[in-house]
């Protein structure tokens, strides 16, 4: 039992003023700590859920509890700003408990949930409250929320300011049909009207950028042929849409962001927009950096996503663009569904839901490709943690630095393991990564200094912008 500690010098007859006991400092020490200044041997000091110091490995305060990681690397927790949790309404596809437990197992400590596939979609303050109530008490990592922009006439334009005040991290719109009737896509005119509002709010607008005009003229996908699916979503659908977004950014001054870029040829427009000083940014996903169309088996609908996985040359150009700094980061676009919705029994790419289940595997998938191309742990941290965190306005996440949340991942970058889908924590063990060897092994994940991987309590918080 610890005696109470009181402050001396109180007046006679008064109870002494309690003096708070200092919180014990936890120290994680590694010969490879991945900081914004590079990979160094260091001791990371944690108290009150924050990083209080990053010192030399032997600079340990008296009484601190030390976890010595040796050669295991210590990385910042990944920040996945593109996750479809689907709860409420489609929790049989995925839910907050399963999605966030999977994230924790994979070294992801913060996710931002997309506004669609749940019912209701997050297109009003009331819907946001419903979503937050569904998530409350069952999140294993920190969770924020995107709002949505819907309809040919931007039906919920009047809701955007209220949603922004309620703390959403920005607004998502589709230029092409979303696949669910309760989240209709917007016209370019409607997006322009919404962009003028989000520009005034200083809010980020994130866009599924495929041109419906191009998609309408492409042959429809049908049957088990992946080539049929690929032909139905040509690169021109992305490049035309992204060119329109660049023009819209120039006209409105809005911060526009291209989600899940697959067509690498659009990077030319992204570079031109950056050179013109436009507020247009872009991300990509691990599956576009990991798989190539030439190797997707017919009938393997777990590979179906929109835009589609493209050819080998396209993959290499995406890696080049990432290395050149043309993308803000790599995020999962975790969009799982049940086997029946994925048409697993028929293998029909025309009827299957388009989405890749990967929230648990994203950092490892990126590391696998990065390592084989000569990139290091500093680049990995920048692409899956710091870049996405900064883009979403989470400056206290995604970095090992004094004052940041102590969201940390113990990682063995030299080991590798075959993905056993049965061991994944998301609701359905259906992923194109099944059977694939990925480099890197996550040994432990910490959220604000506390372990969250494995059978541990749900310690996540619901975030507001």
Automatic annotation (TrEMBL):
Pathway: Nitrogen metabolism; (S)-allantoin degradation; allantoate from (S)-allantoin: step 1/1. Residues 29-56 form the Allantoinase composite domain. GO terms for molecular function: allantoinase activity; cobalt ion binding; zinc ion binding. Its cofactor is Zn(2+). It comes from the Bacteria. GO terms for cellular component: cytoplasm. The keyword Metal-binding applies. Keywords: Hydrolase, Metal-binding, Purine metabolism, Zinc. The keyword Metal-binding applies. Its EC number is 3.5.2.5. GO terms for biological process: allantoin catabolic process; purine nucleobase catabolic process. Residues 74-451 form the Amidohydrolase-related domain. NCBIfam families: allantoinase. Homotetramer. Belongs to the metallo-dependent hydrolases superfamily. Allantoinase family. This is allantoinase. It comes from Pseudofrankia inefficax (strain DSM 45817 / CECT 9037 / DDB 130130 / EuI1c).
């Amino acid at each position: 039992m610890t005696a109470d500690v009181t402050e001396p010098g109180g007046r006679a007859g008064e109870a002494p003023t309690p003096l708070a006991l200092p919180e014990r400092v936890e120290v994680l020490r590694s010969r490879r700590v991945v900081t914004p200044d590079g990979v160094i041997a260091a001791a990371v000091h944690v108290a009150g859920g924050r990083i209080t110091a990053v010192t030399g490995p032997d600079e340990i305060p008296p009484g601190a509890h030390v976890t010595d990681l040796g050669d295991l690397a210590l990385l910042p927790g990944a920040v996945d700003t593109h996750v479809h949790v689907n709860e409420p309404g489609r929790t049989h596809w995925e839910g907050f408990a399963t999605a966030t437990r999977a994230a924790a197992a994979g070294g992801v400590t913060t996710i931002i949930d997309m506004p669609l596939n749940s019912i209701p979609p997050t297109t009003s303050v009331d819907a946001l409250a419903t979503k937050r109530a569904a998530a409350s008490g069952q999140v294993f990592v920190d969770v924020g929320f995107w709002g949505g922009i819907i309809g040919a006439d931007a039906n919920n334009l009047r809701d955007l300011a209220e949603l922004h005040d309620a703390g959403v991290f920005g607004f998502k719109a589709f230029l092409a049909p979303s696949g669910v009737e309760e989240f209709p896509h917007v016209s370019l005119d409607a997006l322009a009207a919404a962009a003028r509002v989000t520009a005034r709010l200083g809010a980020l607008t994130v866009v599924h950028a495929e041109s419906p005009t191009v998609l309408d003229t492409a042959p429809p996908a049908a049957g088990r042929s992946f080539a049929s699916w690929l032909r139905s979503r040509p690169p021109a659908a992305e490049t035309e849409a992204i060119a329109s977004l660049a023009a819209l950014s120039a006209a409105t001054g809005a911060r526009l962001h291209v989600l899940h870029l697959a067509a690498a040829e659009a990077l030319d427009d992204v570079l031109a927009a950056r050179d013109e000083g436009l507020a247009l940014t872009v991300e990509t996903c691990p599956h576009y950096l990991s798989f190539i169309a030439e190797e997707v088996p017919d009938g393997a609908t777990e590979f179906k996503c929109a835009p589609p996985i493209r050819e080998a040359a396209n993959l290499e150009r995406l890696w080049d663009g990432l290395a050149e700094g043309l993308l803000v980061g790599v995020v999962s676009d975790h969009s799982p569904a049940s086997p029946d919705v994925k048409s697993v029994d028929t293998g029909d790419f025309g009827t299957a839901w388009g989405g890749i289940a990967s929230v648990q595997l994203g950092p490892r998938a990126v590391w696998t490709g990065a390592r084989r191309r000569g990139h290091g742990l500093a680049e990995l941290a920048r692409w899956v943690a710091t870049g996405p965190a900064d883009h979403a306005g989470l400056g206290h996440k995604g970095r090992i630095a004094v004052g940041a949340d102590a969201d940390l991942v113990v990682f063995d970058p030299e080991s590798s393991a075959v993905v056993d889908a049965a061991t994944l924590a998301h609701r359905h063990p259906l992923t194109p990564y099944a059977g694939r060897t990925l480099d890197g092994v996550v040994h432990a994940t910490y959220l604000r200094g506390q372990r969250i991987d494995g059978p541990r309590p749900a310690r996540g918080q619901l975030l507001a912008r």
